[in-house]
Structures are given as structure tokens and as C-alpha cells.
Amino acid sequence: MKSAVFFVAFVAAVAADKIPDFLVPGKCPAVNEKALFEKQIPNHSKYAGVWYEIALTNNPYQLLKQCVRNEYSFDGSKFIAKSTGINADGNLMRHNGQVLPMPLGDPHLSIDYEGSFTAPYVILDTDYENFSCIYSCVEFNYGYYADFAFIFSRSPSLSDQYLRRCEAAFKEIGVDVSRFAKTVQGSNCPYDTQKSL
After folding, report:
1. What separation in angstroms does the CA of 54 have from each of 51, 66, 131, 160, 181?
2. pLDDT value at position 141?
């Protein structure tokens, strides 16, 4: 349903000659999702826990702007997700969702947050203990695609060696790493309060 709503909005935007800036002409890059997913499935329980957003590409669906903290609880088949942080108005906010296998059997996870459309959640690289590089790309019949990328860390900062691992993973599929904007994290973030939201 959410995908249908997004598609209708997209068609309306195209009809009005106002293509959102996150839509670009072309196709999603080729990613060996099957090989990645087969390697990751046995380790999904290790992926659970807290992930801090370190950087992301332009994403109008990300309502949290600073101090973004994601908690993933794995129930054996899917992750229940709770994301907290500070929104554009400067207020603390909680955003609920889930990360689960694609219902039609595509070889990757999907992410489904309230108020957004369901989208692919492809883990390009992770060591489960320090970093995760996430990519999401959706193609449309009109010759456009939308892609979003994230760099996560188990702590509010990420060392250069792991940042470079993510940059390499994104460059390998043709994502321009200059598109990333750093997410504000650190001592000014109310993490203890966020845990209780």
C-alpha cells in the first residue's frame, strides 16, 4: 500500500514536471544481492542491537536529523526497529518500523517504517561488531530510480578504517561517496533519554 502511495505521488510529480531531487534517470546499480544475503542470513542475530547513524545520502523519508540511534531486536525471522533522535524542529522523536525478508523472496531484507514506503535494505558490508553499510534502490517504469545509502556504527563515532570499508563498498557499485552528509552524534546527544522513548 505504501509503495502504491509513493508511486502515485511520483506519477503526479512527473506529470507536473516536478521530479523530486532524489529521483534520477537510469537504473539501479548491479549488486550481487544473492551472494551477500546467503552469507548474512546465518548472522542476522548478530546484526541485532544498537546502531548509530554516522552518515547518509539525501533522504526525505529520514525524519530524524541528529543523534540518530537505531535499536534492532531480532525475533528469529525479522527485526523490530526503534529509531530515536532529534527531528528538524529540534524535538526528540521516536520512529517505529521493522526490517524483514522481502515477501516475494528477493535476496535481501526490506525496511518498513511508519509513514514511509517499504524499500530494499541491502547490507553491502558489515563486520556485525563495528560498522554496517546499507544501500536501498528502487527503479520506476519511467526510467528513473531512487537510491539511499547509510553508514552505521555500533558507537556514536566510527574509525577511519571502517569508514573506508563502507566508502569502498559504495564505490564498488558506483555510488558517489561525496553524496554522504555526516549525521551529528556525540556528547551533546541525549542518548540516555532516547533509550527510554
Report:
1. 9, 10, 10, 12, 9
2. 83
Alpha-carbon radius of gyration of the chain = 16
To the nearest 10°, report the CA torsion of 119, 120, 126, 132. Answer: -20
Strand partners for 125: 133
* Secondary structure class of 175 (helix, strand, coil): coil
**pLDDT band at 7; cut points 50, 70, 90:** very low
User: CB of 97 within 8 A of CB of 110?
Assistant: no
Q: How far is CA 9 from the centre of its chain?
A: 21
Phi, psi torsion values for 49, nearest 5 degrees: 115, -160
Using CA atoms, how far apart are residues 7 and 43, in angstroms rounded to an integer?
33
Arithmetic mean of pLDDT, 158-174? 98
